[in-house]
Specification:
Length: about 250
């Protein structure tokens, strides 16, 4: 275990140094995207009630976590495939799981400032008084891990980097408009309400709302348990994809 932890620490450090020229750009871009979504969706509605604003702000935060696992991570892996760095790491005598978690950690660290900015900006824009439950940190970690495996598998099995990029945009489009992330589940058609039970973003959004608001109908324990199960399956899927690759 000590050796695994050392490998993980060194890999995180190595990945951060490798991405040092783009870290601030990614942080700024993610923050601008989150702020744009909070503002833009508000402009589409003639009146934004406090409940709607709360769903919009917390949903955008949850969507940012989904972006880490379903957009940023697969694009990093796909770029590594294209440049040959992924194959290089897979030739080293290191734990594949430590390498995967290092990648997840790095992209999550780059995205987390945007989540904080999104919440603060939304509170200011819509005059919201959100609370903070320490369980939010557990929600954040599990939200990213529950989707990371899907993103890694998408990148590993895609034949080209362009295919991966197209798939990530398609998936995040679904999360924004067809999942109960930015809007209550009861506003979705019956079929989408049913399928939402089988997708991690549903529970990530519920967990974010349960730890930041007093909205009725949230189920923090259920969401944490569901995301834990999704995270275990997600890591197993990504590990299998990487091991097959290398």
């Amino acid at each position: 275990m000590a050796q695994w932890l050392r490998q993980y620490r060194d890999l995180v450090s190595l990945q951060l140094r490798a991405m040092r020229t783009e870290v601030w750009f990614v942080i700024t871009f993610q923050g601008a995207m989150a702020a744009g979504l909070v503002l833009g969706m508000g402009y589409l509605m003639p009146e934004v009630s406090r409940r709607t604003a709360t769903y919009l702000v917390t949903g955008t935060a949850a969507q940012s976590f989904a972006t880490v696992g379903l957009v940023m991570l697969p694009q990093v892996v796909a770029r590594g495939k294209a440049l040959g760095t992924l194959d290089y790491y897979l030739t080293l005598p290191i734990s594949r799981e430590a390498y995967l978690l290092a990648l997840v950690t790095v992209v999550a660290l780059m995205a987390f400032p945007a989540v904080v900015f999104c919440i603060l900006f939304g509170m200011w824009r819509y005059d919201l008084a959100l609370q903070f439950d320490p369980a939010f940190l557990a929600v954040a970690v599990l939200a990213v891990l529950s989707l990371a495996g899907v993103g890694v598998a998408m990148a590993v099995y895609s034949p080209h980097q362009q295919v991966t990029n197209a798939l990530t945009q398609l998936v995040i489009f679904y999360v924004i408009f067809f999942a109960p992330v930015l809007l209550p589940v009861e506003q979705l058609p019956g079929l989408l309400q049913f399928t939402a039970n089988f997708f991690p973003p549903t529970y990530a959004a519920d967990g974010v709302r349960a730890t930041l608001t007093d909205l009725p109908g949230t189920h923090l324990v259920r969401s944490l348990l569901a995301m834990t199960g999704f995270a275990a399956g997600s890591l197993a899927l990504s590990s299998a994809a990487i091991r097959r690759r290398g």
